[in-house]
Amino acid sequence: MKIDVEAVAKLARLGLSPEEKKLFGEQLSRILDHADTLKKLNTDKVEPTSHAIPMKNVLREDKVIPCANVDDILLNAPQAEEHMFKVPRIVE
Amino acid sequence: MKYETIIGLEIHAQLLTESKMFCACSTKFGAKPNTNICPVCTGQPGVLPVMNQKAIELAIKTALALNCKIEKSSVFARKNYFYPDLPKDFQISQYELPLATLGHLDIVVEGKKKRIGITRVHLEEDAGKLVHKGAARIMGATESLVDYNRTGVPLMEIVSEPDLRSPAEAKAFMETLQHLLQFIGVCDAKMEEGSLRCDANISLRPAGEQKFGTKTEVKNMNSFKAVFKALKAEEKRHEEVLSEGGKINQETRFFDDITEQTIGMRSKEYAHDYRYFPEPDLVPIEPSADWLAKIKNTSGELPEAKRDRFLNEYKLPEADAEVLLATPALTAYFEECLKLYDHPKTIANWLMGDLTAYLKTNNLAIEQINLTPAQLVEMLQMIDKGTISGKLAKTILVEALKSGKTIKDIVAEQGLTQISDEGEIKNIIDEVIEKNPKQVGEFRSGKDAVVMFLVGQVMKLSKGRAKPDAVQKLLRQKLGQ
Ligand SMILES: [Zn+2]
Hints:
Strand content of chain A: 5-15%
Strand content of chain B: 15-25%
Shape of chain B: elongated
Radius of gyration of chain A: 22 Å
Oligomer: heterodimer
Bound molecules: zinc ion
Number of helices of chain A: 3
Largest sheet of chain B: 9 strands, mixed
Strand order of the largest sheet of chain A: 2-3
Number of strands of chain B: 15
CATH class of the domain at 2-39 in chain A: Mainly Alpha
C-alpha cells in the first residue's frame, strides 16, 4: 500500500530529505501492509477494544496539590517573557 | 426564493472543579501566568494523566439533566494538532465513544415550546491562553506569549442536533442551557468570561428542501447577543450568496463584534486532520448503576420541575415564576424564605419588587447582600402583626440592605414601630384638626373626600407610624361628635 509520506510528514511537522522520504515511505508502506494482513482475520466475535488491560474508572479525588518545582517548567522555554512562554508569529 | 435556516451548536463549558482534568493543578482563574502548571499538563515526557472523579460526575450530572443516555463505556482519545496553546501537541478529548448521547433540551421561543436534540456530551481538557504582541489579535501579531494555567482545565462539550431554525432559537438555546448549568451547579456559565463558549454551524436550504445546504462554522461569539448577531449576519450572507446563484464555501468564520460581520479564514489553515486515536494512558469510564444513582441524587429538582411546582403548588403567576427562577441564588433565597413563612406570593412580591430594585440600582447580586431570608421573613411577620406598616417596611428594607443591620435593630433604633396606642393617635388627630380648620369645616359641611387629606396629615405627623385605617376611623369618630 502506498502512503503519502509528504502529507504525513507535514502533519507531524517533520522536514524530510528526499532520501528520508524514500526510506520512511517504504517502512510506512510495510506497516500498512502488515495492517492489511491483520484485516484478513475474522474478528466477527471480537469486541472492539481500545486498551489491552482490563481496567476501568481509575480516578483521582478532586484535590489541588501544587507542583513543587513549577518554575523549572518555564526554564524549558526557548524564550520567556513576563513568566510566559514566548512563541513566534502564529499566522502569517 | 424563501430559505430555511439550519443551526447546530457546539458548546464548551468549564466544569466547576478545584483541580484540573488529569492532574492536581488548581483551576483558579486569575493566578500569575504559568503558576498552576505541572509536568502532566505541560506534557513533559513520562507523565501519566489520571481522571478527575468530580469532573466526570459533573459531566454525567449534566448529561442526565439533558435527558441523555449515559454510555456504558466511554473512552478518551488524542486529538492531534499543533498550536502554541497546546503543550502536548494533542488534546485529550473523546471521539468515537463519548460519555453520553441522544438527549434533548426544551426551549421556549415566542411563547412556544420546542424540543432540541442533544447529539452528545463529552469530556475534554481546555487549552492555554495566548496573549498577542504587536497587535490586538492574532492577525498581525509579531509574537505571542502563552500562559498554560488554563491548560488541562476540565471542559465539557455539548453538541446539539441541527434542530435550531433561527438565530433567535440559537440564542434561546444558549440561555436555557446556561440557566440549567448554573442551576445544577456544574458551571459558572458566563459567556463573557469564557466559562461558557459556543461555536455554531449554520446552513440555509430552499424552503421545503430535505437536503442540507453547505454549512459554515461561526466562532468567536462571546455573549448571547453576539450569538444572535453573528448568526443573523451569517444567515444574511448565506441568503445573499445563494439568491445570486452563488455557492457557500465550507469554512470557519470569525465573528467580528465591532463590524458585526463574520470574516472567513483561509480554509487551508483550518483543513485539519486530527488523526484521533484512543488515549493509551487512560482507561475507559464505565459508570456503575450505583454511581449513576448517586450522581442523580445530587442534582435536586431541575428548573422545569421547579417552575411547574411554583405555578401549580404555590399558584404563582408565570411572570413571577420566571423572575424567581432567573438565577439559582434567587430561587434558593425564595425557597429559604418559604420554609419559614408560608405565603409564596407575599415573598415573591417583596423579592421581585423592592429587593430586586435595590439590587439593580446598586448593581449587586443577591449573593452579595447581608439580609438573610430569616430576617426578611421576620420583617414580613412584623407587617402581619401590625408592628410596622407595609409602607415603612420598604424604607426599613432598604436601610437593612444598605447598613447590614438587622431589621429588629433598625426598627428599635429609629422608633419605627407602628403606634398602636389609641391615645397617642388621638393627640395627633387633635393637633391636625386644630391646624386645618378650613378642611375640617369642608368635611363637616358634607365634603367627605376631604377626610383623606386629614388622614394624610396625621400620617405625616406620626412619621408614617400610625395605621391609616385606624386613623380614619378615629378621625371620623372625632369629627362626627
Ligand atoms: Zn498540571
